[in-house]
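User: Please predict the structure of the protein below. I'd like the answer in structure-token form so I can feed it into my own downstream comparison script.

Assistant: Understood. Taking the following sequence of 165 residues as input:
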Amino acid sequence: ELDTMLSREFVYDMGSTTRGRVKRDIDFEGDGEHEILLVVSDNVGNRGYYSWYLEVEGGITPELTQVMNYPNPMEERTDFTFILTRGMATVRIEIYTVGGRKIRELGPVEVSSGFNTVHWDGRDEEGDQPSNGVYFYRIAADWSDPESLGSEKELVEIEKLFICR
């Protein structure tokens, strides 16, 4: 149950002393029916009650967001970071030259929803340090529960990586 005083978040409409707005994001826990009860009062203490019922189905759509590596440009090593919005996933990160040759694959790594980090020691598959330049990395999240994505099972993002020693 969310019980919040919104009076500090109330903003009057332009030119009005009686109308305004409150904007609030609400995270519903789980699917099913939820009630929103709004209690409003004026400066004299008169109260009004407003109630809404919502039916939440399906929860959050799985997404792979805020994909980046840090530091970028990198010298010796970097961390790939990303947010998964739902569930557990198997993640693979592949690093490619601009010519399309894969130099390293990280994973599979099991990760959960929220902020995640995968470390790269900056070495290719042979254990050598790649030369300075631009590279691309492909991060793919594979949800083990096919129902969590419907017909699509894998989410992919491609980003640039710079190596500068």
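That's the full token string. DSSP finds no helices and nine strands in the chain.
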